[in-house]
Amino acid sequence: MQTSKDAIYSLPQQVSGFRFDDSVADVFPDMIQRSVPGYSTIVDAIGQLAGRFATEGSNIYDLGCSLGAVSLAAARYVEAKACNIIAVDNSEAMAQRCKRHVQGYKANTPIEVICDDLQNVRIERASSVVMNFTLQFIEPDQRDNIIKSIYAGLAPGGIFILSEKLRHDSTQGNELLIDLHHEFKRRNGYSELEISQKREAIENVLRAETFEAHQTRLKNAGFDEVILWFQCFNFASIVAIKN
Ligand SMILES: C[S@@+](CC[C@H](N)C(=O)[O-])C[C@H]1O[C@@H](n2cnc3c(N)ncnc32)[C@H](O)[C@@H]1O
Ligand SMILES: O=C(O)C(=O)C[C@]1(C(=O)O)C=C[C@@H](O)C=C1
């Protein structure tokens, strides 16, 4: 895929709330790579997990798929027969580009791209459901119901992979992790202005919770195992298993 450099916050501006619009979709691969520590490692490992847990005839859901990185990783690893990958995003800008992006990809497992709110998509016969940095953008009071319907739609033995930016439960710990993340962004070429304007843009849009809050929600929904399999600074990925 052609990737342009993210310079959205490089000039001083009246910062408005972050949206997944055309300007973000155009630079998204560069933005997420330079903003999320371990992004490529996480995406590839999610593909491996989807492959490992896939069963014949099952569905794999990529909720908040953006340009389809997770769906494409899953398609590379899934060997079970007659599986379907369902990629969902409610941003027109993302879903349109995602459709074009997956079209050229020839794999045994087809990828269907749906432009809709993920809450309108019924989860059924799922071996894996993935939310890779998506739940954090959804209203906190809607999160319990989303996780419950994912649990209900997973087949026994299925997994839910949840990657999120985390808030640490102490002020000191939280500030340290935020500082380390900002240093990561600086090292990836973002200026102080870009870092502070982006922080302002996502402030009321990305509502991070603690690991404990996610763990409690997953356990309450019925998941038997909740495993933190990746963390770098304030970015983490969890795999929850339904036995
Ligand atoms: C940080 S991006 C996800 C990155 C992507 N999963 C990846 O691995 O490259 C978050 C995505 O979630 C989508 N999103 C946010 N709320 C959504 C909702 N309610 N329904 C569907 N998609 C949603 C956004 O449009 C955006 O593309
Ligand atoms: O850029 C940041 O500071 C972030 O929090 C990273 C983050 C994310 O976690 O989704 C925020 C918005 C963009 O989608 C890309 C990355």
From TrEMBL:
Carries keyword NADP?
no
Q: Which reaction does it catalyse?
A: prephenate + S-adenosyl-L-methionine = carboxy-S-adenosyl-L-methionine + 3-phenylpyruvate + H2O
User: Which CDD domains does the record cross-reference, listed alphabetically?
Assistant: AdoMet_MTases
Q: Which UniProt keywords apply?
A: Methyltransferase, S-adenosyl-L-methionine, Transferase
One GO MF annotation is:
methyltransferase activity
Q: Which Pfam families did the record assign?
A: Methyltransf_25
The Methyltransferase domain sits at 60-158
- The record lists S-adenosyl-L-methionine as bound by Y39, G64, C65, S66, D89, N90, D117, L118, N132, R199
EC number, as in UniProt: 2.1.3.-
| Key word Methyltransferase present | yes
Task: Read off the InterPro entries from this record.
Answer: CmoA, Methyltransf_25, SAM-dependent_MTases_sf
Source organism superkingdom = Bacteria
For biological process, the GO terms are:
methylation; tRNA wobble uridine modification
Stored NCBIfam families: carboxy-S-adenosyl-L-methionine synthase CmoA, PRK15451.1
What does the similarity note say? Belongs to the class I-like SAM-binding methyltransferase superfamily. Cx-SAM synthase family.
Q: How does it assemble?
A: Homodimer.
Functional summary from the UniProt entry: Catalyzes the conversion of S-adenosyl-L-methionine (SAM) to carboxy-S-adenosyl-L-methionine (Cx-SAM).
> Under which name does UniProt file this protein?
Carboxy-S-adenosyl-L-methionine synthase
Chain's gene name:
cmoA
